[in-house]
Amino acid sequence: MGRAPSLEATGMTKIFGPLVALDDVSISVPAGSFHALLGENGAGKSTLVKSIMGFYSPDKGSVKLDGKEVSIKTPKDARAHGIGMVYQHFTLVPCLTAAENLVISRADAPSVIDWRKEKKALSEFMETMPFKVPLDAQVATLSAGEKQKLEILKLLYLDQRFMILDEPTSVLTPGEADEMLGLLGDMAAKKEITVLMISHKFREVKAFCDGFTVLRRGKLTGSGDAQSASIAEMSRMMIGDTEVRERAARTQHNDKREVLELAGIFAEDAEGTPVLSSINLKVNAGEIVGIAGVSGNGQSALVEVLAGQRAMSDGAIRIQAQNFAPKRSNFDRYKVFGLPEEPLKNATVPRMSVAENLAFRAFDKPPVASLGWWMSPGPLRKRAEELIKLYRVKTTSPDAPIETLSGGNVQRAVLARELSGDVDVLIVANPCFGLDFASVADIRSQIMEQRNRGAAVLLVSEDLDEILELADRVAVMSGGTITYVAAIQETDRNVIGQHMAGH
Ligand SMILES: Nc1ncnc2c1ncn2[C@@H]1O[C@H](COP(=O)(O)OP(=O)(O)OP(=O)(O)O)[C@@H](O)[C@H]1O
């Protein structure tokens, strides 16, 4: 077809108050290229693509498509120019079918839809596509891989042939990720599309990308050919001379005390449909049990139950053989810590400062609360400064509202707070989701150190590599229950993958 556009953004600058989030950055993505945009958390990747997409109006800079300067003031303008974006999280309407989602996404969708005509047109469109999604299926019933394919089909349906993908594989199994990137790579090679992909995974960049651009602290630090550059070169451009901490090793334990027990847990959603049924699992002191599974199989509901955000309809949580009701006073009493999904929403007060959020679990204890209920600003700030440094949280100041931090930095701030206490039980859900590799190394080391110190760790993760690296045992969740449990040494990726797929 040869319809892939080229895109060139020059001198892009975006200032947020005291912070230059993007400082004179230029990027060139030739037609039919599969280009990676790399950088640590907070480097400015989202700011760059949001400025190109018209979500932000840059303070300076210009965008050329196929060599011609274009004016993009809103995301609608970007769409009209054939630039589309796929986000980390799905944007489809779950209760509609795949076909309905495609048709309503059109700017010119008629108010009365002639479904016979639309379906014929859609089947013809699907014929020309390299991958298929069942058009009559309700989106809620599709797997994560199918939903992601539908997001991409939507861009093609809207004729958006410059695709910006924000970590598109974070919700996919490794097999699904390779399949999807492979198909996009083939389309790019045929010059049907041009892809700009934000990624933190060097393996994917090496396997599928031709060009790359690296940002660091809002500045361009390098670009080139992703095939000839080495991973070491690319990571140096990303992190400069910041040292990557060495991974904490697993130590042997004699302490086999049972600490956390999930005993026959059941839960329903608002409509009364079961989301968890008969969850039985024990976690010992000094053990990491990884819960693997394709997203949407009850993992979020389980984390919500453990965090006290969702009621159980039956069953019990026990800690050290005592019934545990998940509420704030008990979290402190039983030394239960954790990172829920979407930490900005579930574990912070977005408008409060980074320092206040870091103190949140400690705000009513000395030394922070030495003035009674008045939070004492001196110790609070000092403690915050220590944690910010130790966990490398990027913020303009401890006083900045936590909602102004990049996604990865909010996560690091919450982990800094939760991992810095005296932990008996640690419950973490996708702790490294969207983090850059230096942070992944840090966070995984911290989790391992808590295990080595004797904490019982429940690690819910959609990233199988993470479970294989950290867990002592793995449990697979499928259809709201645990279908498989094994010691890590006695199983492998394929067997776990088959159970994840429900076989
Ligand atoms: N709306 C905003 N207001 C103030 N500061 C912001 C805003 N959006 C982003 N920033 C800041 O701009 C910097 C760049 O953030 P950006 O989200 O572009 O990083 P990123 O490279 O996409 O990071 P991540 O990998 O964590 O998503 C960060 O320091 C962030 O705190």
Count of discrete alpha- or pi-helical segments spanning 4 or more residues: 17
Instruction: Calculate the terminal CA-CA distance, rounded to whole Å.
Output: 39 Å
Q: Taking strands numbered 1, 2, ... along the chain, how are they ordered across the largest sheet?
A: 6-7-8-3-9-10
Low-pLDDT residue spans? 366-373
User: Which secondary-structure class do the elements indicate?
Assistant: alpha/beta
CATH architecture of the largest domain: 3-Layer(aba) Sandwich
What is the CATH top level name of the largest domain?
Alpha Beta
- Tell me, rounded to a whole number, the average pLDDT: 88
Largest sheet: 6 strands, mixed
Could you tell me the strand content as a percent range? 25-35%
Give the full name of the CATH homologous superfamily of the largest domain: P-loop containing nucleotide triphosphate hydrolases
Descriptive notes:
GO terms for molecular function: ATP binding; ATP hydrolysis activity. Keywords: ATP-binding, Nucleotide-binding. The protein folds into three domains: 7-239, Rossmann fold (3-Layer(aba) Sandwich), CATH 3.40.50; 257-335 and 459-503, 3-Layer(aba) Sandwich (Rossmann fold); 343-421, no CATH class. 33% of the residues lie in helices and 25% in strands. It has helices at 45-53, 75-80, 98-104, 115-127, 144-157, 174-189, 202-208, 231-239, 299-307, 328-333, 343-346, 354-359, 377-390, 407-419, 437-452, 464-470, 493-500; strands at 7-16, 19-29, 34-39, 60-65, 68-70, 83-86, 162-166, 194-198, 211-216, 219-225, 258-268, 274-284, 287-292, 314-319, 322-323, 336-339, 425-429, 456-460, 473-478, 481-487. The strands form four sheets. The chain has a six-stranded mixed β-sheet, with helices on both faces. The longest helix is centred in the middle third of the chain and has 16 residues, at 174-189. The radius of gyration is 24 Å and the shape is globular. The protein starts with 6 loop residues before the first strand and ends with a helix. The structure holds adenosine-5'-triphosphate. Adenosine-5'-triphosphate binds at residues 16, 19, 21, 39, 41-47, 394, 404-408, 434. The site of adenosine-5'-triphosphate has 18 residues, from strand 2, helix 1 and helix 14.
